[in-house]
């Protein structure tokens, strides 16, 4: 019996009138999320990054646009607020990992581009990030991973529909 089992058992005893079945699944998902996040944060920390800085650098790297992305494009691809994005970019500029360059297509705007150092950091960080993710998923077979992914897609869609 693990921590979640104990909690569910206690609630079942304390409130037998409630169906606490979903508590077991959601509790495990929340606990797993915390564990996964902690492991990934340890990986990012090795490169002097946190989730926010990794997110921006990884987005710039995977975008396929070597000239950089506009702040609006970054916002769209990372789904954070503009104030948060400005702060993230400012911190990365100070660290020498990105720079702002004039947007040739919009003289009033600018693009955010990886510096050479930023490219070096994100290349190494994303390699370790993927290795960490593989290590974290090693306990499941390929079929189990596929099944879990399908169930998570279904649950996410169900929760999103209910939230709309």
TrEMBL record:
<dbReference type="GO" id="GO:0003700">
    <property type="term" value="F:DNA-binding transcription factor activity"/>
</dbReference>
<dbReference type="Pfam" id="PF12802">
    <property type="entry name" value="MarR_2"/>
</dbReference>
<feature type="domain" description="HTH marR-type">
    <location>
        <begin position="22"/>
        <end position="157"/>
    </location>
</feature>
<keyword id="KW-0804">Transcription</keyword>
<dbReference type="InterPro" id="IPR023187">
    <property type="entry name" value="Tscrpt_reg_MarR-type_CS"/>
</dbReference>
<dbReference type="InterPro" id="IPR000835">
    <property type="entry name" value="HTH_MarR-typ"/>
</dbReference>
<dbReference type="InterPro" id="IPR036390">
    <property type="entry name" value="WH_DNA-bd_sf"/>
</dbReference>
<protein>
    <submittedName>
        <fullName>DNA-binding MarR family transcriptional regulator</fullName>
    </submittedName>
</protein>
<keyword id="KW-0805">Transcription regulation</keyword>
<dbReference type="InterPro" id="IPR036388">
    <property type="entry name" value="WH-like_DNA-bd_sf"/>
</dbReference>
<dbReference type="GO" id="GO:0003677">
    <property type="term" value="F:DNA binding"/>
</dbReference>
<keyword id="KW-0238">DNA-binding</keyword>
